[in-house]
Amino acid sequence: MSDVLVSHPQIDLAPPISTATLRGIILVKGVGGLGNRMLSFLTASLLAEVAGRRLLVDWRDSIFTGRAGTAPDLFGALFVSPIVDPLPVNIECRSVIPALWQGRLNETLAVVGRGYDPDFHNRFGSFRDLAVNLRRYDYDENVLLVFWSWREVVRPLRSSLASMDRRYKAMSDWEILREAARHYLRPRENTSAAVDEFIARNFGQRMLGLHIRATDMRAPVEKLMQTAIRIAAREKCDGVFLSTDNAEVENRVRSALPNVVTQPKELPKGAVPLHYDPNCADRVKRATQALTDMLLLSRCQCLTYAARSSFGCMAGIFAPPGQVTVDVDRFNPRIRAKKFLQSWIY
Fold first, then answer.
1. What is d(CA 32, CA 37) in angstroms, rounded to the nearest whole number?
2. What is the chain's mean pLDDT, rounded?
3. Is 22's pLDDT higher than 50?
4. Tell me: the pLDDT tens digits for 71-87?
């Protein structure tokens, strides 16, 4: 099967709604890795846009912070957003939808979800009971809405977005997410500065970004490596930036491709994702390293990844117009079917 090269066009909509017109709150709970959380946030930002609400983002669960309850504001440590309010120590509201969250707004999704259904992580319909319906926006402003998702969910919002600005109608889901990221999800200046410094010291004129997740959600390593070799030759890349969570994979890529650069980081042993590593002393620092990796991938002229991992998808969303991307999962029927079904859950 031939590689499909995609060069993303520039999309320039009118500025988003003024924050002065927003009312009411949507509370976004964190789940999964950094890519999952960011795709969920982008969905929530689109919901906030059509519903006229502001966001609170609660990523204080133990996955990235090592502890819950007194954990730092991870979203605030990584990003700034004109649509997000500062996260209070305690979140309180008399009226909450879904009602399962009433009186439990400071608890994590894992705790509330398992209390409702011990197997909620594996039950496809759990979204409907633990997250607000994306098709309804006519709630009183004093009602707090709780939202979370594993990945992006754009389809239920498309008609409302198109009603606000008809240019949305002609945009793909990917283009809508890129526009949301441009308006609502901006990395902190210190992270952006670190990215610029790394590029100045390590990048050539034309770089291939390669993302390979090879721990719990194992990507097709051989396919990614062979695709990277072809694309690097075809696009005349003079270097490769590799983002991976597996030391063995890093060694294999270095032996197969020339001029491979990586961001220095300690990789866990075995099939343990970076954000679950029990030996990590500073998970906020690790999350910052992960975001830096993602932004470095986005700054490469070419990108090869597998869409089963949301991390690579977010790198493509952050990329400027003109980046050439190859998703090796593009024609994977299982991945495509899963994403289609997820789009109908809400």
1. 7
2. 85
3. no
4. 778 999 999 999 999 99
Distance of alpha carbon 257 from alpha carbon 271, whole angstroms: 24
Q: DSSP assignment, residue 1? A: -
Domain ranges of the chain: 19-187, 189-332
Cβ–Cβ < 8 Å for 244, 211: yes
Q: Which residues contact 173 (CB under 8 A, 6 or more apart)?
A: 152, 154, 155, 158
Degrees, nearest 5: CA angle 238-241-247: 130
**What is the SS3 assignment for 205-217?**
CCEEEEEECCCCC
- The CATH class of the 189-332 domain is alpha beta
Please give the structure tokens belonging to residue 231: 């694309």
Question: How far apart are the C-alpha atoms of 198 and 262, rounded to whole Å?
Answer: 10
Q: Are 338 and 344 in contact (CB under 8 A)?
A: no
CATH number given to 19-187: 3.40.50
Q: Are strands 79-80 and 302-305 parallel, antiparallel or unpaired?
A: unpaired
Q: Which H/E stretch holds residue 241?
A: strand 239-244
